[in-house]
Every structure is written in structure tokens, then in C-alpha cells.
Design brief:
alpha+beta, four-stranded antiparallel β-sheet, 50% helix, globular
Length: 342
């Protein structure tokens, strides 16, 4: 039997598996969607620089629990239609079968491990994304958090010795906030008073998690009160990246986009793009993002509009909006400069 997808490889190897996107936010991809992406019946939803980046977590089906799962960090190019390039996936599968046969959950020898790591389709995510994934998996499988959890939790309440906090601890706390009401209150009360490095690291941890509703609303309310250029505004914005649109978040993001910094525009495009989907229940107006983009230097406009147009969920709405007759002059000029129109 010829195996043409990773889904088939794992099923033939009698493995259970989970898939997580690692391109922008660390978030789960259902096995159904993953199979559709592999079969090119669905575009990859979160491309970054022309690639799909994901984590494949798998373990033997007959195992009592996923005690020691296998983990592949995979990166494949996508084509101009947003579809996974199947030839590259086939190439990786061939490499795996050559090394391991179809029993992908058998223990690897040191030599096999080294050979597999030489594959051009394996990559090393940032420390923050690895920490976010680990935190999500340990919570999913009801395992205790890392040894860094308690220090992170106490530091968020009293940041006196914040330099000793580990990245994994912040991600473990962020993943478990639904159970940590005291820590929720501490973060909301101290967020803008935290030392800059701690605040930024916390924002990166929060961006990968769906926050408790009351906490997200409070952070959004705080953001809506920050004037342009205020310290910590971009971090507040980033911390809301995984939230579903609601009126408080829409109001906060709309406020930021009236006078955004370059960093804030980048965060909106790279992390908060789902908030601008007109098909969502409570979207931020796409026009407000385009207005903010048009205020940037031409090179920044070009880079960010190119990135947004690669998102299959947003692309059609963007193109329709950019063709409107009532498009603001500044947006029209920026778009015409980008397309080379006169």
C-alpha cells in the first residue's frame, strides 16, 4: 500500500494523534481538518511566509494513556492557492518509512534519530511556542504543570524577584488561569506595573490561551483606556490574541487602531486577524485595519497586506473591501502603489 499522507502513515502505524498549528498562535487543528489539508480539499488556514508549521503529537493506540508521546515539529511549503504541497509531504513520508518502516511509534536508535533530524521538513519552534504547546498538552492530559509553575504564580502576585521566572512557568500558569481566580485578579491589577520584560513574556504566554471571559473583558477595558504611545499597550493587545470577538474587545482594538504604533499594527495583522473576519459574530471593521495599514510606510504596508492576503479566511473579504468605490483616499493610494496601478 502506498502511503500519501501523514494521516495514513499514523493510522497504518496504529497511532493515535493530535495536531497543533504553530505558525502564528499555538492552537489545535482537528484531525478532520488536518486530513482535509493533507488531501488539498481545504487550504491551510494559518500560513506564515508561505509555509504551514505544525506539531504532530502521536502515541501507540493500545497505550493506556499518552505517557510518552512522540512529537514532530513539521514545516511544509504551501502553493499560491494556500494548499499544502503534497510532493514535499510524500518526500518526508518516504524518509520516515525508509528509516522506521510503518511502525512510527517504535523506539528510535540514536543513529535513526540523528538521520530523521536531518530532514528539511523538521524545524525547531521558538522556546515560547514549545512552552505553550507543552502547557496545553499537560493540561489536556491532566498532568501536573512543570516545576516552574509555582514560582511563576507567586511572581505574578508579587513580582519582586521576577528575573528568576522561567518561560515554561508563565505558560503553565496562563494555560490554567480558569482554575486560578486569584492569579487572574493579580494579572489584571498588576499588568501595566510589571517590569517590561516580565510583561512582554506574560503577553506572549497569554496570546496562545483562551482567557476566562471576565479577565479578557477587564484587559480589553484597560486597553481601551490607554492613549496612543502608552507603555504596555502593545502587550495588552497581544494578550487578547486568542479571544473570540466580543463588544469589549472590538471597542479596545478599534481604539488602538485610531492611532496605532507600527508594533500594534503588526500584532493586529499577525495575531488578531480573526477579529477582522466579517463573518464572525462581532467583527472589528476591516476598514479600520486598512486605515491603520495605510498610515504606515509603503514597505510595511506591502509586507502586511501581502501577509493578510495569504490568509484564506480573510483574503476574499479584503479583496472585496479594497475594490469598494467609497474606499478612503489614503487606503486607495496605498493599495494602488502596492499593485502598481495608476
Amino acid at each position: 500500500m502506498s502511503l500519501s499522507t501523514l494521516t495514513q502513515l499514523l493510522q497504518e502505524g496504529q497511532s493515535s494523534y493530535l495536531c497543533y498549528d504553530l505558525g502564528r498562535l499555538v492552537q489545535p487543528l482537528s484531525n478532520t481538518d488536518f486530513a482535509a489539508i493533507e488531501n488539498q480539499t481545504m487550504p491551510y488556514p494559518y500560513p506564515v511566509q508561505g509555509h504551514a508549521c505544525f506539531a504532530l503529537v502521536f502515541w501507540p493506540q493500545l497505550a493506556a494513556s499518552a505517557q510518552d508521546p512522540f512529537l514532530w515539529f513539521l514545516k511544509f511549503p504551501i502553493d499560491e492557492r494556500g494548499l499544502l504541497e503534497q510532493g514535499r509531504v510524500h518526500e518526508f513520508i518516504t524518509q520516515v518509512i525508509t528509516l522506521l518502516g510503518q511502525q512510527v511509534t517504535h523506539a528510535l536508535t540514536e543513529e535513526q534519530e540523528q538521520q530523521l533530524q536531518q530532514s528539511p521538513y523538521l524545524f525547531t519552534p521558538t522556546e515560547e511556542k514549545r512552552a505553550a504547546l507543552h502547557a496545553k498538552l499537560s493540561l489536556r492530559w491532566q498532568r501536573p504543570p512543570s516545576v516552574h509553575f509555582e514560582l511563576a504564580e507567586s511572581t505574578l502576585a508579587d513580582p519582586q524577584h521576577w528575573q528568576q521566572v522561567g518561560v515554561q512557568g508563565l505558560h503553565d500558569v496562563s494555560a490554567r488561569l480558569a482554575q486560578l481566580e486569584t492569579t487572574q485578579a493579580a494579572i489584571c491589577g498588576n499588568f501595566l506595573r510589571y517590569p517590561e520584560a516580565l510583561r512582554q513574556a506574560l503577553a506572549v504566554a497569554l496570546e496562545h490561551q483562551t482567557l476566562p471571559n471576565a479577565m479578557a473583558t477587564e484587559l480589553a477595558s484597560m486597553l481601551a483606556q490607554q492613549p496612543a504611545g502608552a507603555e504596555g499597550r502593545a502587550d495588552l493587545l497581544r494578550s487578547l490574541a486568542s479571544q473570540e470577538p466580543d463588544p469589549s474587545i472590538v471597542a479596545a482594538v478599534t481604539h488602538v487602531l485610531q492611532q496605532p504604533s507600527v508594533d500594534e499594527v503588526v500584532i493586529c495583522c499577525a495575531r488578531l486577524w480573526p477579529l477582522f473576519d466579517p463573518m464572525s459574530d462581532c467583527p472589528v471593521p476591516l476598514a479600520s485595519l486598512l486605515d491603520a495599514l495605510a498610515q504606515q510606510e509603503p514597505g510595511i504596508f506591502a509586507a502586511l497586506i501581502t501577509d493578510l492576503l495569504r490568509l484564506p479566511g480573510l483574503r476574499p473579504h479584503l479583496l472585496v473591501t479594497l475594490q469598494r468605490d467609497d474606499l478612503p483616499q489614503q487606503v486607495r493610494q496605498a493599495w494602488q502603489a502596492f499593485t502598481g496601478a495608476h
